[in-house]
Structures are given as structure tokens and as C-alpha cells.
Amino acid sequence: MLPIPARKVVTLLPNRLLMTVRGFFSFRENRFFWLNIIAMTLVVVVVIFGVLKGLDIYTRHGDAVTVPDVKGMGVLEARQILEQSDLKCVVADSNYVGTLPAGCILDYNPTAGQKVKRGHIIYLNINTLSVPLVNVPDVADNSSLRQAEARLLAAGFRISQIESVAGEKDWVYGVKYNGQRLMIGEKVPINSTLSLMVGSGATVQDSLSVDGIEVKPDASKQSEKKQASDDDSWF
């Protein structure tokens, strides 16, 4: 067998490679292969479309409602209005506002006017049903009347009356709630009305207490004692 010249080998290799590539991409020669490729492509497209469609259905994409305004309403009334819009609600927090009725809705999230999906949960913040108890500031026997009033008012309490007791004038000796004297650290409902026990300027010797009733010495007796002391001064 005669050897093929090197020039002819170089010429034949590109031609054979070109024929192989053309045969591979020829639908007539490899139709089963290409039919499988087309079928697999269609399956992938259908699966992707199905997944996206399923996500839209599951997340209710485009199916949104507007959150109604329920601020200031009671929980039952607000729940009825929200359920009419296919929304749910839960009480998530509570605060105390003395000027508003107990149980009314102070605010909520998402707020009114926002777009949410049907079935979304609205978290409510309501006015507490019970008045919270707070510590009464320690003003007894360490504050003047003006200082005590300022601290009690700043803490959210009210002062109804001043009870005069024997002691240094305008010095606070105690705080009372519903007629009972409060101890240090004792708690009472916020916004309660308190009364202060304030010194009148009279000493204990000038004022006697009998069975809880303050009795002041008779003025004539005081005059006699003063006159007697004046007479004694002559000796």
C-alpha cells in the first residue's frame, strides 16, 4: 500500500471533521436524539411554569385587600370588620391611656390603608383592661409640700386635699390613699387621688390628740400660764 502524501492527510482531516459535525446536527440522521432533547426541553418548561403557577396560587399573588380603619374600636367590633375583609387579628400588646376606654384599640400593624393578602394577621395593641399599679414616690418626711406635689403629679397621681398635722410648716409627713396611710414602696392604681399630711407649723406641745381628734389648749388657759410666768419673773 502506497503511503498517502502528508498534504492530502491535512486536507482530508478538516473534511471528515466537517462531515461529523454536520451529521451530529442532522435531524434526519439523529432524529431520536433530537426528539429526546425536544421532549426534555418541553418537560423542563412545563415544570417551571407549573412551579411558578403553584407559587402564585399558594401565596395568593395579586389577591390583596386594604386594611380597614379599626382604631379606637373594641376588640370584638374590630374582629368582625377585619373578618369581613378576610383578615385575622390577634392582641399582641397593651398599654394604658387613662383618657380612653379600657379594651379599645390604640394602634395595629399593618396599619389602615396598607395592602395585604387575604388571611393576613393584624396585630393589635389595645388599652389595658385593668389599671396598672405603680409605686408612689417616696415624699414622706423628706420633701416640702411643693416638692411632693411636683413629684406626685409627674408620676401620674392627683392630689385632692391637704391634711394639717403637727409639725414643721409645709413639710410632708405622710401620703394617704382612700384614708389609709401609705408605706414606702406601696403601689396604688395610676391616676389615683392622694392626700398629703402636711405640717401646720404647730409643735406637739401646742397640739394634743385624744382618740384621733386634735384638741388645742384653751386660749384662756394659755393666757393664765403666760401671766403666771410673767409674775414668776419678778422673783
Distance between the termini: 171 Å
Tally of contiguous helical segments: 5
The biggest beta sheet is recorded as:
4 strands, mixed
pLDDT below 50 for ≥5 consecutive residues: which ranges? 6-10, 208-235
Order of helices and strands: HHEHEEEEEHEEEEEEEH
Q: Choose one word for the global shape.
A: rod-shaped
Structural class, by secondary structure, is: alpha+beta
Helix content bin = 25-40%
How would you portray this structure in words?
With 235 residues, this protein is of the alpha+beta class. The chain is built from 5 helices and 13 strands. The protein has helices at 6-24, 31-59, 75-84, 145-154, 219-232, and strands at 64-66, 88-95, 105-109, 115-117, 121-127, 133-135, 158-165, 172-177, 180-181, 187-189, 193-199, 208-210, 213-215. The strands form 5 sheets. Strands 7-11-8-9 form a 4-stranded mixed β-sheet, covered by helices on one side. Strand 8 (172-177) and strand 9 form a beta hairpin. The radius of gyration is 46 Å and the shape is rod-shaped. Residues 6-10 and 208-235 have low confidence and may be disordered.
Give a quick precis of the structure.
With 235 residues, this protein is an alpha+beta fold. The protein has helices spanning 6-24, 31-59, 75-84, 145-154, 219-232; strands at residues 64-66, 88-95, 105-109, 115-117, 121-127, 133-135, 158-165, 172-177, 180-181, 187-189, 193-199, 208-210, 213-215.
